[in-house]
Amino acid sequence: VQLQASGGGLARPGESLRLACKASGFPFDDYTIGWFRQAPGKEREFVIGISRSGDTTTDAESVKGRFTISRDIAKNTVFLQMNSLNPEDTAVYYCAAAEGYYPSTYYGDYNYWGQGTQVTVSS
Question: pLDDT per residue over 81-108, tens digit each?
Answer without folding.
Answer: 999 999 999 999 999 999 988 999 999 9
